[in-house]
Amino acid sequence: MSYSVGQVAGFAAVTVRTLHHYDGIGLLVPGERSRAGHRRYSDADLDRLQQILFYRELGFPLDEVAALLDDPAADPRAHLRRQHELLTARIERLEKMAAAVEQAMEARSMGINLTPEEKFEVFGDFDPDQYQEEVQQRWGGTDAYRQSRQKTASYTKEDWQRIQDEADELTRRFVALMDAGEPAESEAAMDAAEDHRRGISRNHYDCGHEMHTCLGEMYVSDERFTRNIDAVRPGLAAYLRDAILANAVRHTP
């Protein structure tokens, strides 16, 4: 039995365009074609799509998903075991984050001030004070530093969670654009860069396009930024820098 691209899109809750893209890059090539040349997907194709979506949910880039699934030595059961382990770990982390947000809501409703440690507890091992001395030396006398200190002084854990969620959503947008082959100079990438700039202005300090391009350059010139950003998707730091620069040029009179 085989299924049309529309049926498969409905089964998997993905778009037809996504399935066309997967076919185009060789990630999921349907095993059959109708007499009219339309894509027809077999049960084996659906099994592969399920594996792809599992790995995508876990944040794997498409090229890495393809390498994993096309490994001739790979055992399908091993894929499932690995995905189960990764998903279980994510569930545990999300449960901890949900508990932290509940604590923040309760503290806020009771008028309790959270400590700096509590504000950043939700981000795991991240130490908000790790670079504090360096930050103060480099930017302590700037308006941006003073604005950021003033704005963030009253932030609750809920506020920091919101900011992190916004950042994660933007990261997913940029990764999706890269996976889709969108150039950093495309309208979609520049729009994402503009949302990135506006988020900084909204949550931290006034960030004009010139300052934004300086940040973009720092993402690739400071190996700590590059390492952290590229941990999500190799090449993401440079892509983000290029999109920021293109967006700044777009807004230059």
Describe the secondary structure blueprint for this structure.
Blueprint: E1 3-4, H1 5-12, H2 16-24, E2 32-33, E3 39-41, H3 43-57, H4 62-69, H5 76-109, H6 116-120, H7 132-139, H8 143-152, H9 157-179, H10 187-203, H11 209-221, H12 223-230, H13 236-250
Antiparallel strand pairs: 1-3, 2-3
Helix pairs in contact: 3-4, 9-10, 10-13, 11-12, 11-13
Per DSSP, the total helix count is 13
Instruction: Quote the distance from N terminus to C terminus.
Output: 59 Å
pLDDT averaged over residues: 78
**Sheet with most strands: strand arrangement:** 1-3-2
Oligomer: single chain
* Overall spatial form: globular
Number of strands: 3
Q: What is the radius of gyration?
A: 22 Å
Beta percentage is: under 5%
Structural class: mainly alpha
Q: What string, H for helix and E for strand, traces the elements in order? A: EHHEEHHHHHHHHHHH
Query: Largest sheet, described in full?
Result: 3 strands, antiparallel
